[in-house]
Every structure is written in C-alpha cells, then in structure tokens.
Amino acid sequence: MRSSPGYVEARQALPPITSWRRGWTGVFFFAVRYSGRVEERVTVVAGVMERCGKILICRRRADGWHPLKWEFPGGKAEPGEEPPAALARELQEELGIQATIGREITRYGYAYPERKPILLIFCEVKEWNGEPMNLDFAEILWERRKELPGYDFVEGDVEFVGRLARGEI
Questions:
Q1: How many of the other CB atoms lie within 10 Å of CB of 85?
Q2: Domain tally, the chain
Q3: Angle at 108 between CA 106 and CA 113, to 5 degrees
Q4: Which residues contact 110 (CB under 8 A, 6 or more apart)?
Q5: Residue 99 pLDDT greater than 90, yes or no
Q6: Residue 4 DSSP symbol
Q7: What's the CA gap between 26 and 120, in Å, rounded?
Q8: What are phi and psi of 76, to 5 degrees?
Q9: Residue 59: which domain range?
Q10: CB under 8 Å to 158, separation ≥6 — which residues?
Q11: What's residue 41's pLDDT?
Q12: What is the average per-residue pLDDT within 114-127?
C-alpha cells in the first residue's frame, strides 16, 4: 500500500496529527509537528470523474511544478473554502464544467521534499454540466482504471492510483 516513497517519508517523518482546530472561516486546518515546528497542511482536493468505464486524468504542463506528470483534476482549497466547494471551483477553472461533488473516497497526508505537507482528499464527481475542456493542462484523456498505473502520476497520487486500479476503491 505504501508504494510511494513520499508517502512513506510523510508517514515516518511526520508524527500523527497532534492537534486540529476549526478556523473561524469554516475550513479545517490540520497542524502537524516535525523538526520542532508546527505547520499547517495545505488541503488539496482531487476529483474522480468516470464516464463509460474510463476515468479523466490530466497531464500537467511542462512549465510548472511536476512537469508533464499526470494527476486528477482539482487543486488547493483557498482559505475559508470547504473541500467540495474548492473542487467545484477548480473543475470550473480547469475544465469549464459545473460539477456536483459526491462522496469523499479517501484522504491521506503526503509530504513532498522542501514543501509544506499536504492533505489529499479524493472525491467522486458523478454529475457535471458541459463537456470537460482542457483549459489548464498539457493534455487530458479518459483512461480505464486498470491502465492508470502505466502513467507517470505525481508522487502524491501514486498510492491512490494503485488502489483505484486494483478495484479497492
């Protein structure tokens, strides 16, 4: 299950969440302690959109962070933004669709080197209006679940991709 090196690093380097509080804006902030400091995790929400037995995946542009790696559509929650609202906003910005966000599939922490730790939240997106258009990526495509591990995904998504491809979620 812990096939991704960053996932293992995050689990080993970061002790369990030591405290959490509800911010006045309504977003949950998760505080973690490592290297003698307390830092808040950035919340990242990703959508799993399925159509005709295929899942939408997106390839990052070459000029950004994690160039040409694959990911699920979505992004960071802004201060005061609940995860479902953040995902709906990101899908509008990245794909030009109005989406209804479904149930949360899973969540876990991940730490990229030299970056703030993140809380990854994956949600179902079963309904949307409009045809997804590529507004922000190098490319987008629909792919069968079992084929997903053959793509070079961002490290934080690798664990989820494996579970999804094996039919565990």
A1: 16
A2: 1
A3: 145
A4: 4, 6, 7, 10, 117, 118, 120, 155, 156
A5: yes
A6: S
A7: 18
A8: -75, 140
A9: 5-165
A10: 3, 4, 7
A11: 86
A12: 95
- Over 80: is that where the pLDDT of 24 sits? no
Q: Report the CATH number that the domain containing residue 151 is assigned in CATH.
A: 3.90.79.10
pTM value? 0.77
Indicate the helix (H) or strand (E) that contains 162. helix 158-165
Long-range contact set of residues 26-34: C-beta below 8 Å, sequence gap at least 24? 26/80, 26/82, 27/77, 27/79, 27/80, 27/81, 27/82, 30/109, 30/119, 32/109, 32/117, 34/117
Secondary structure class of 113 (helix, strand, coil): coil
How many angstroms separate the CA atoms of 124 and 115, rounded?
A: 27
Of residues 22 and 67, more confidently modeled: 67
Token pair of 87 as six digits = 């995902």
Which pair of structure tokens corresponds to residue 25?
């804006």
